[in-house]
Amino acid sequence: MEVAYSVLLCVLLYFELITGTLVREITSQHVREYDGTYENEKSLGISCEGSSMQCSIKCLNDNRCVSIFYYTIAKTCILHADPFTYTKRSKSEIEAHGRCKADFFYYRQLDLCFKFGPIINASDSNVAKACSEPGEELIKIDSEERQQYIELITADIGLVYNRSICIQGTNMKNPSNKWTFNDGELMTYSKWGIRHPAVNGTFIRINRGENYTWTSIKNAKWCSYICEYNWNDTNASNKT
């Protein structure tokens, strides 16, 4: 964080009309503890906007945006894909690691590069394409520590993550239909809900409204998602 800004953070609201159309609206709250600070690293964009409302509208028009910093004097608007609930960025941290791609955030304790994805239609093909850039994959939850961290960073942004969160996991690759990650590695950690896993599937859902338990149900129409970036795998492939 760098000193200078008066801050307004926004959260985005998704809801589904009776017609089945997914609509995105915005609500905002002033977070006073962030006053006098701002973050421009990993921003989605920096622009000059006449008011915080115009800055909020700019955020609304970008499906990746979940928070804004607005400087009232210079009319500077900074959009972010990070809610800054439990993530903090610093230039020294970025310079020390250099592990994450430009639109990813770094959590040192888990050595995790991640980014939030918008709500998508949760078909097998859509979820498979969600994190398809080189080095990216749908996030793996392979430990209690990762599970707890995902719960933390999504706990206070329910208006954004009001749907289930799609994570990596499939039972379609193992001959015995055991649940594995996409590379075939057996899953040794899980947080299945009651009567789950219930069906075969190519991904898993985290249900925020049910104590973040996992389900394999396929009849839910939408989910959000989180991607992770594997710096070591990408670096190794570039050397071969």
From TrEMBL:
Q: Which InterPro entries match?
A: C-type_lectin-like (IPR001304), C-type_lectin-like/link_sf (IPR016186), CTDL_fold (IPR016187)
Would you indicate the residue range of the signal peptide? 1-23
DNA-binding among the record's keywords?
Answer: no
What keywords does the record list, in alphabetical order?
Answer: Signal
> Which residue numbers delimit the C-type lectin domain?
113-228
What is the designated name of this protein? C-type lectin domain-containing protein
Question: Organism, per UniProt?
Answer: Mytilus galloprovincialis (Mediterranean mussel)
